[in-house]
Amino acid sequence: MRIESFGSMAVDWEERVNFDRLRCERLSRAQQALADSDLGAFLCFDMNNIRYITGTTIGEWARDKLARFCLLFRDENPILWDFGSAAASHRLHAPWNDSDRWRAGVSTMRGSMSAETGIARGVAEKIKAELEARNLQNEAVGVDALEVPILFELERLGVRIADGQRHLLDARLIKTRDELNLLNTSAMMVDAAYELIYDNLRPGVRESDLVALVTKRLIELGSDHVEGINAISGERCAPHPHIYSDRVLRPGDQAFFDIIQAFHGYRTCYYRTFCVGNATAAQRDAYRICREYLDASIDLVKPGVTTQEIAAVWPRAQEFGFGSEEEAFALQFGHGIGLSHWEKPVISRLVSFNEEFVLKPGMIFALETYWPATDGYSAARIEEEVVVTPTGHQVITRFPAEELIVAGSRYMTASGEIAGRTGAEPRWSADLTANAADSGATRAQTPIGGADSDSREP
Q: Has residue 242 got a pLDDT over 70?
């Protein structure tokens, strides 16, 4: 399995991503998933599924509008109802589908057009007419996301609705050669973004300043969507707030970042942790433990291993300060990546002992771990993107993370470089901080959210 990364342009002197092949293979897999189901058609409003099936997309502003929709049958090209003039544009510039299948149409745009406009009724009538033309009016239709007014209108017309999202996510589970190369190129762009963070991580810089710098750099490199950048520093590291702020970085801060962006729609989810100027023993310890748990899960990745086996090597929520697996959800975590930020498989102590996947070549997922420091406010967060290969795995996220990196100025005195500070008193009581100085000791905390017996054992 050869996984490559490229520049963002097409060239005539080497084959990079073959977009015709990409579109054909994605459509074929979606139709195979439909054939394997008991559904008559897929009806999609999710932009990721629409892109997967039709090979089209429009501005990211449309992502949360549910404005576009497509209908897929087992043995013919899809029909896409697109946003206004986008349909005419596709008839000119997207020749891989019959021109009469690029049609104008719009949903209620999350209810902004009420029932009185007749929009919801019109959508339902369009779908019903296509089903009747193929004698599928009595077959269930698999839907991925649906506005309530349109659901009511479809039901009024007698159209049976079923869950189509699970089938489409199954179709997208194994990536094609071109998808893997796009994901690898997307990861390369974030490698460069972390180099920029390293160069600019210093006292006086705000979290939001770093978000702005990284966003600009990613777009310059060819990103078509900077979905989100978590920039978390200092006292905000524990518990993880999952949102950046205008906090100003200070000497000795621990800071971690998650960069979620897309190249031709293919996402990254990629955490790195740094310290500003120097690192304390507590911060180094947190990073070491975080890395150990991550490496333990990565080492397991190969065909035939189950997601349950991976989740089992991660600590229970109570071991790092939370009362339940729901409170700790997504801190020790794995999730597929592709056209969506989160795809199958999801790996977590919350769910993996109830549903497991057997790893197969061509799967790709991000594995991410978290560990709070004993100072009560610092924490480490690391994430790697891992491809399952025929003989094992390949990590495609390359910015160094084997050891804790210190960025910014190194402060010197007459006797040499300043050693790591001892740190201020914890802002939480000692019984709420990690009891994990010795890597061989039991890593336990009193749960932040209170005691809870929910350990999600296999």
A: yes
